[in-house]
Amino acid sequence: QQQVKQSPQSLIVQKGGISIINCAYENTAFDYFPWYQQFPGKGPALLIAIRPDVSEKKEGRFTISFNKSAKQFSLHIMDSQPGDSATYFCAASANFNKFYFGSGTKLNVKP
Amino acid sequence: NAGVTQTPKFQVLKTGQSMTLQCAQDMNHEYMSWYRQDPGMGLRLIHYSVGAGITDQGEVPNGYNVSRSTTEDFPLRLLSAAPSQTSVYFCASSPGQGISQPQHFGDGTRLSIL
User: In angstroms, rounded to a whole number, what is the distance separating the alpha carbons of residues B11 and B89?
Assistant: First the structure.
C-alpha cells in the first residue's frame, strides 16, 4: 500500500502557465513534506518542503499548499518555464526518519 | 565538493550473481539510505542507517544487505541477483535523523539483471 499517492502521472503545460501537482497521505504521524525535482540521469534534488504547522510556503515561483484536515498537499509552479521540465516527486516522513515517496509526475513545459 | 558518490553508474548482472553497490559521502552526514526507483512507483526505501554501526530496514529490504562500518560509506549488497531487482538505485545522505535538512542524492546506479 503506497503511503503517499501522487497525481497526475504526467502533465503538459504551456510556457507561462501554472503547473499543479497533488499528493495525499494517510499517516497522521507524518510531519515533514518535501518536494523533489529530478532531471534525466540525475538523482532527485530538494525543491521545497513544508511542515504541517503552516498552510502554505512559497519560494520564488514554487509554492506548497498544505491541507492538514484533508491530508493533502500540492505543488504549484507559477510562470512555468521549459527549464522546469522534469519529474517531480512528493514525499513524507515522520521525524525525518523513513521517507515515503509518491509515484512521480513528469512535467513537460512547452515553449 | 563531491557530495554523494555512487559506483558503478551502470551494471549488468546475470541471475544468481552477487555484487556490491558503493556509496560514499564526504559531508560527514550521519543519516544514509538506499532507494530503488522503478517506473510508476517513485522511490522506495530499501535500508537506512542513522550512524556508523546502525542499520535498519525500509519498505523493500528483501534480497539486499547493508552495513555501515564508517560514517562515509554505506554499501548495498545483492547476494543473489534476481530479474525483479532490475532498477535504478539511489543512495542519499543527510545530517541526521530528526534534523530539518534535505537529503542529498547521488546520481544513481542503473542495474540490469538478465
Answer: 11
A42 secondary structure, DSSP code: S
- Nearest chain A residue to B104 by CA distance is A45
Query: What is the C-alpha separation between B17 and B84, in angstroms, rounded?
Result: 13
Question: Which phi and psi angles does A83 have, rounded to 5°?
Answer: -65, -10
Distance CA A32, CA A49 (A): 7
* Residues A47, A69: Cα–Cα separation, whole Å: 24
Look up residue A76 and give its three cell numbers. 504549484
What distance in Å separates the CA atoms of residue B34 and residue B58, rounded to the nearest whole number?
Answer: 9
pLDDT tens-digit readout, A50-85: 998 899 999 999 999 999 999 999 999 999 999 999
- In three-state secondary structure terms, B1 is coil
Adjacent-strand bridge partners of B47: B34, B57
> Residue B103 gets which letter from DSSP?
P
- Quick check: B85 contacting A, CB < 8 Å? no
Q: Which residue of B40, B103, B108 is in closest CB contact with A99?
A: B103
C-alpha cell of residue B24: 560514499
